[in-house]
Specification:
153 residues, alpha+beta, four-stranded antiparallel beta sheet, TPGS2, Tubulin polyglutamylase complex subunit 2
């Protein structure tokens, strides 16, 4: 039986830095935050992706397939130090292909300007602040539109 990979402290792999939208750097530089770890899983095999697509009668987008061929999910956790105690605080995970669940999306709940995986493809000339601002603006626009649809101002 294969041993699980040891957790990565911080984010030493560029693709994981993109997947977490730079959150690891932000957490590591935040006062009181400690033990930022990432458990990355081994890549999925092509037959696992094909099997999921057949079982769900759904073709996954190429960027999702490429993600699973790079890593079959990951789990990031972090803690905070309060007085002399370390308290687990946060967790972010992307499920493995075997735990991926198809959602039947209603257009009523979709957000036309919500961030997508394409937003992760930042141009190296743009820099991190431009990338974060793009995500922030898309989120704010989508949130404002959602409030308008529900009749709030």
């Amino acid at each position: 039986m294969e041993e699980p990979p040891s957790p990565l402290l911080g984010c030493s792999k560029p693709h994981l830095e993109k997947l977490t939208l730079g959150i690891t750097r932000i957490l590591e530089s935040s006062p009181g935050v400690t033990e930022v770890t990432i458990l990355e899983k081994a890549p999925a095999e092509r037959h696992m992706i094909s099997s999921w697509e057949q079982k769900n009668n759904c073709v996954l987008p190429e960027d999702v397939k490429n993600f699973y061929l790079m890593t079959n999910g990951f789990h990031m956790t972090w803690s905070v130090k309060l007085d002399e105690h370390v308290i687990p605080l946060g967790s972010m995970a992307i499920n493995s292909i075997s735990k991926l669940t198809q959602l039947n999306q209603s257009s009523m709940y979709s957000l036309p300007n919500a961030p997508t995986l394409a937003d992760l493809e930042d141009d190296t000339q743009e820099g991190d602040s431009t990338f974060r601002n793009t995500i922030r603006k898309k989120y704010q626009n989508a949130h404002q539109r959602n409030k308008t649809v529900r009749g709030q101002r």
